[in-house]
Amino acid sequence: MDAPQHEIVIVPRVGEPGRDELRQECYDVRIDVFHHEQQFPLDTEIDDLDSTATHILLRLLPSLKPVGTIRCTKHDNYYKLSRLAVLKDYRQYRFGRALVLALHDHVKRDAKQSGQHDSVTIKCHSQIPVKAFYAKFGYSPEGEEFDEEGAPHQLMVARLSSSD
Ligand SMILES: CC(C)(COP(=O)(O)OP(=O)(O)OC[C@H]1O[C@@H](n2cnc3c(N)ncnc32)[C@H](O)[C@@H]1OP(=O)(O)O)[C@@H](O)C(=O)NCCC(=O)NCCS
């Protein structure tokens, strides 16, 4: 099925105009998916990483309805992908794919700007039912499953060339 028209927005950085409003739209999608649908606790949905993270939002056009989001954080020697969510009614339109690829583009741009011209590492804590989704984008499992927020997760790691 053809995907509805949409846009991908990189939420402005800390201190830039529009960050709070657009980040709230990302939170709204996350709360809908992770809290209302998947029953994760509401009080841990927004965490310490959110204040400085790069948030990416997918909205329908022309309505600007937010339907998907993903979050990228930068750590000592890797980036972390987290909080990937697409509203239930909008799955299978390749929006999840578009969000992961937008995060990869952001990571490559950021790595280049930071003078890192070799490969970059991206980690994510995958829920078990979506391991095969991440595998499509080059992520491989590392280590044992572990509990996070009461649900089993698996560390998945991808290595990208920042010069691609
Ligand atoms: C995981 C999620 C983001 C995928 O979004 P989506 O828009 O439905 O996925 P896409 O349509 O972009 O799928 C891309 C590819 O992955 C596949 N795929 C989608 N969900 C999958 C899953 N759960 N397991 C395995 N493959 C999956 C699709 O079939 C498609 O394959 P193809 O390119 O070979 O045709 C969405 O199902 C979701 O929000 N789930 C609930 C929240 C969640 O679990 N987030 C991850 C937390 S770790």
Automatic annotation (TrEMBL):
Q: Check the record and name the CDD domains matching this protein.
A: NAT_SF
Q: N-acetyltransferase domain location, by residue?
A: 9-161
Give start-end of the signal peptide. none
**Xref: InterPro entries:** Acyl_CoA_acyltransferase (IPR016181), GNAT_dom (IPR000182)
PROSITE patterns, A to Z? GNAT (PS51186)
Q: What is the superkingdom listed in this entry's lineage? A: Eukaryota
Q: What is this protein called?
A: Acyl-CoA N-acyltransferase
